[in-house]
């Protein structure tokens, strides 16, 4: 996807200076001038507050389980009320990850971590939307607590994905097998387990003041789950390959999640144990790998930025190297942005704004080969990414459903594309839904706030329901965008 980002000469120099042999060339030095956060934002291209409201509302359309009376997307109804019964456990609730009716624990946990990080960094700017963001997080953590209720066991998926994908039916009508898949001591999954620990730890910070007892439950469970992830090492894709692949195979291994999980537990508990773990295991867990992606599978970049805060703001000198890695990954991410989908647009925008916040707090700049890059430069680039998503692109199309005058009308999403239970109370059978899926008619139910895969690298977007790569939304695409939109809405006085 061509994001139409114009790099200035200094930024191009920085891109060129990052090679595998010059990993530590760029370092932070004390800033010599004002780093005021508003200097880079000259005008508001969009109604970021409206986009923020919608980006959070989207999660209500992905809810599984018994819906509350406060449910705002009322075309959705209760679903999956017997989830877990196949193994005599309660796994009702949580989120469907995308346009299907399966609950995948790996991306659900990452979604939870990123929603929580959005609130941790920018929740103070959200005002009226903060409570809605907390409720979106709690819908996930209540489920993750159920999935981790038994020691050394995590239930990581509900639903047979292959059979689910063979049907086009509403979640309210599901009759495909709600098979339950788990990891344990004999079939470990350090990747999904450590991500779950990260999610619980991050969420504990969100609820620390508003619900201290719930926060304590989350962090204690996070500690236990991380111990399991670290003690019984292995990738869940190895044991559950027929069920989780090709949907959410763990391609990057589990080392990044262990580092990520430890970083979040250190942030949540302040225990030296986790700082020691990072210092002792950082290199073996891939601290010097040059990955330039950040998403549901690969956490290297996020871990380095999170850990770099301890060096930047708290001046933990033993974490100095992570600052160098963070600089490298930031620019690698920007370079990658010219050919990627919306998952990387949203995650990169969030990381840029968060890193800019850390640099500003520490009064530091990034320098490279005599060139300096200010936090404001990072914010400007983040704004361009978000603006592209919201409509500043060749097609003048918003890739957030329900935002702007022109947005995708035929997204790859079963519940959105089929008539709601209120309109069509009769069951829609497994195969009969495909006639609607293949039609050119717009989806009858607007999944407000859903960010879809987006255009290809030539900025083309056909708006075809069958094109899941470009037209399917996912919770992990929306989660980091929540934080980015909160910052932008606040910066322009919209909140």
From TrEMBL:
Where on the tree of life does the source sit, at the highest rank?
Eukaryota
- List UniProt keywords, sorted A-Z: Carbohydrate metabolism, Cellulose degradation, Glycosidase, Hydrolase, Polysaccharide degradation, Signal
Q: Which reaction does it catalyse?
A: Endohydrolysis of (1->4)-beta-D-glucosidic linkages in cellulose, lichenin and cereal beta-D-glucans
Pfam families attached here? Glyco_hydro_9
Phosphoprotein found in the keyword field: no
A single GO BP term for this record reads: cellulose catabolic process
What range does the record give for the signal peptide? 1-28
State which Enzyme Commission number(s) the record gives: 3.2.1.4
Q: Which SUPFAM superfamilies match?
A: Six-hairpin glycosidases
Q: Glycoside hydrolase family domain location, by residue?
A: 48-485
Which InterPro entries does UniProt cross-reference here? 6-hairpin_glycosidase_sf, 6hp_glycosidase-like_sf, Glyco_hydro_9, Glyco_hydro_9_Asp/Glu_AS, Glyco_hydro_9_His_AS
- Specify whether DNA repair is a keyword of the entry: no
The residues annotated as the active site are 412, 463, 472
- Gene3D superfamilies recorded for this chain? 1.50.10.10
Q: What protein family does this chain belong to?
A: Belongs to the glycosyl hydrolase 9 (cellulase E) family.
Q: What is this protein called?
A: Endoglucanase
Origin organism is Tetracentron sinense (Spur-leaf)
């Amino acid at each position: 996807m061509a994001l139409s980002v114009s790099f200035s000469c200094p930024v191009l120099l920085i891109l060129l200076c990052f090679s595998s042999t010059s990993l530590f060339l760029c370092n932070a030095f004390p800033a010599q001038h004002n780093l005021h956060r508003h200097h880079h934002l000259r005008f508001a291209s969009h109604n970021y507050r409206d986009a923020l409201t919608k980006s959070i509302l989207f999660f209500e359309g992905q809810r599984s389980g018994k819906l509350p009376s406060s449910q705002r997307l009322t075309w959705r109804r209760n679903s999956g009320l017997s989830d877990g019964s196949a193994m005599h456990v309660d796994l009702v609730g949580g989120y469907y990850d995308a346009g299907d009716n399966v609950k995948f624990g790996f991306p659900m946990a990452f979604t939870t971590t990123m929603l929580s990080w959005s609130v941790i960094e920018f929740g103070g700017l959200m005002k009226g939307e903060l409570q809605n963001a907390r409720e979106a997080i709690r819908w996930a953590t209540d489920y993750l607590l159920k999935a981790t209720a038994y020691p050394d066991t995590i239930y990581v998926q509900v639903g047979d994905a292959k059979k689910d994908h063979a049907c086009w039916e509403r979640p309210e009508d599901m009759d495909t097998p709600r098979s339950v898949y788990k990891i344990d001591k004999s079939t470990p999954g350090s990747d999904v387990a450590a991500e779950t620990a990260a999610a619980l730890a991050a969420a504990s910070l969100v609820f620390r003041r508003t619900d201290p007892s719930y926060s304590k439950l989350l962090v204690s469970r996070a500690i236990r789950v991380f111990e399991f992830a670290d003690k019984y090492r292995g990738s869940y894709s190895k044991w559950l390959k027929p069920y989780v692949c090709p949907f959410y195979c763990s391609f990057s291994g589990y080392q990044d999640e262990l580092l990520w999980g430890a970083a979040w537990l250190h942030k949540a508990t302040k225990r030296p144990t986790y700082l020691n773990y990072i210092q002792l295991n950082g290199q073996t867990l891939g601290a010097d790998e040059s990955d330039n992606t950040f998403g549901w599978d690969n956490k290297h970049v996020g871990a380095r930025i999170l850990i770099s805060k301890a060096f930047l703001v708290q001046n933990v000198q033993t974490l100095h190297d992570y600052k160098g890695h963070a600089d490298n990954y930031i620019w690698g991410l920007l370079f990658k942005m010219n050919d990627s989908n919306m998952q990387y647009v949203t995650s990169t925008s969030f990381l840029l704004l968060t890193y800019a916040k850390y640099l500003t707090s520490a009064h530091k700049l990034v320098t490279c080969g005599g060139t300096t890059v200010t936090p404001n430069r990072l914010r400007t680039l983040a704004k361009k990414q978000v603006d592209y998503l919201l409509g500043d692109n060749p097609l003048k199309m918003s890739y957030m459903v329900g935002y702007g005058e022109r947005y995708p009308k035929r997204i790859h999403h079963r519940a959105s594309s089929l008539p709601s239970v209120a309109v069509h109370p009769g069951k829609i059978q497994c195969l009969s839904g495909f006639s609607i899926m293949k039609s050119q008619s717009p989806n009858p139910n607007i999944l407000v706030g859903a960010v879809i895969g987006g255009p290809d690298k030539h900025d083309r977007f056909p708006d075809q329901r069958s094109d899941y790569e470009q037209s399917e939304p996912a919770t992990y695409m929306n989660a980091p965008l929540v934080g980015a939109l909160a910052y932008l809405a606040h910066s322009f006085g919209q909140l």
